[in-house]
Specification:
By secondary structure, this protein is of the alpha/beta class. The chain has helices at about 20-30, 60-70, 90-100, 135-150, 175-185, 210-220, 240-250, and strands at about 35-40, 75-85, 105-110, 110-115, 115-120, 155, 190-195, 220-225, 250-255, 260-265. The structure holds zinc ion (2 copies). One zinc ion binds near residues 83, 109, 111, 157 and 158.
């Protein structure tokens, strides 16, 4: 088994990651990866939306940083991408971002279940105490389904992120997964195996084996991401992730060039 491309990593421009793209690329080569993609947190129309993404005026600097790494590491394929927050009503903004640069792919991620609460924000962990956890999961997957239907993204990021701090999905979550994965299949977008979950309280890859097995049954393609916020996190636990994918039946993963998918052997 060779290691798949790592399509999810950040830069200091998002204000909560360390290390320059060249350091991420260097680590990728050291562990035997042949392809990576930078997918930093995309700006929102309002810079004060939150404090964990790049400001809009940093977008060109971000692209320049990734281009620099591409030039410095010609032996590694380095893709240019963004992790874009999906919130209903932001579709036009996302289309405008898409038109700004020749991106290789967009990861569509749901972090926010309302305009002010991201379920994975450690600074807002106490918000979980005021919420009905089942309702959070329901809203989360409704938004994820809309993201998959939107045709704005090549990859849907960390599909069961609400488990991050150890909150378990509702007992009857299966229909939520079905609806989301049917939408992904219909629009042709891939889902991400994101190994960052192994470094969080949930101690599990996003998404769960249950979701991944259902995705395979439905023919939804996959891509891989470490969600690295530091160079040494690049490719972390990729052997485990590849084994999980194999275990449910996957033999191919997706690579992306200029927003076009190609299936490669896993
Ligand atoms: Zn982040
Ligand atoms: Zn994310």
């Amino acid at each position: 088994m060779s290691l798949p491309a790592d399509y999810h990593m950040h830069t200091p421009l998002c204000r909560h990651a360390t290390g320059e793209p060249g350091e991420y690329a260097k680590h990728a080569l050291e562990i035997g990866l042949t392809e990576i993609g930078f997918s930093d947190h995309a700006p929102m129309p309002q810079d004060n939306f939150d404090n964990w993404r790049m400001n809009a005026d940093k977008l060109d600097a971000y692209v320049a940083k990734v281009r620099q790494a591409q030039g410095d590491f010609p032996q590694l394929t380095i893709r240019l991408a963004l992790e874009v927050d999906y919130l209903p009503g932001y579709e036009e903004w996302i289309r405008r971002l898409a038109a700004r640069h020749p991106w290789d792919y967009f990861i569509g991620s749901v972090h926010y279940v309302s305009d002010s609460w991201a379920v994975d924000d450690p600074q807002k962990l106490s918000e979980w105490n005021h919420r009905d956890a089942d309702a959070v999961w329901a809203v989360y997957f409704e938004r994820l389904t809309r993201a998959a239907e939107s045709d704005l993204f090549e990859i849907i990021g960390h599909a069961d992120l609400p488990k991050k701090f150890g909150h378990r999905p509702p007992r009857d979550a299966h229909p939520l997964y079905e609806k989301f994965l049917d939408a992904a299949k219909k629009s042709g977008c891939a889902i991400e195996l994101n190994t960052a979950g192994l470094r969080k309280d949930c101690r599990e890859i996003y998404p769960s084996r249950e979701i991944l097995a259902l995705a395979f049954q439905k023919g939804v393609p996959i891509a891989f991401g470490s969600d690295a916020h530091a160079p040494e996190e690049v490719g972390m636990n990729f052997t485990e992730a590849t084994q999980l994918a194999h275990g449910v039946g996957y033999r191919k993963s997706c690579h992306f060039t200029r927003r076009k998918a190609a299936l490669v052997d896993l």
